[in-house]
Here is the input.
Amino acid sequence: MSITTAVGTFTVRPLDPVEDAPLLHGWVTHPKAAFWMMQEAKLHDVEREYMAIAASGHHEALLGLLDGEPVFLMERYDPRHVELVGLYEPEPGDVGMHFLVAPSDTPVHGFTRAVITAVMEHLFADPEVRRVVVEPDVANKAVHALNEAVGFVPVREIDKPEKRALLSFCTREQFRKAVAA
Here is the structure.
């Protein structure tokens, strides 16, 4: 699937936990990825984490490419089974999402917003998806602004084992309205 944005056309492919682990290791341990909570991870830790995701029937990792070059990671999960079990009442068509933009020495204005837009387009391309659910750290103000820009509405703070999170939802209609503005 190709997703055209203001910065170019993205494609998304399944992540290979072994082949892509060295690339991901550099991303998740980068200082800008502090909220990913893998700063101290070793290469084998990253490989093991993504092998577990690949083996799960409720979680998947995908790599986003721009002109064939990997530029973002996205995870899609079923919140009835992963991440949010017992923390909110899931509705039919809910899908959870995480995304991480690759670190860059030459930032491109609007790039991260283009990435989250592409991620949301990818998720909503599935007709079964009615609402995207996210749970970023309450202190991650930059991602809250990005989420709002694509239509997410904060619902409440929740306590997860690893963080205090801001539970937020975005319906297909909220997304379409936000990106059309």
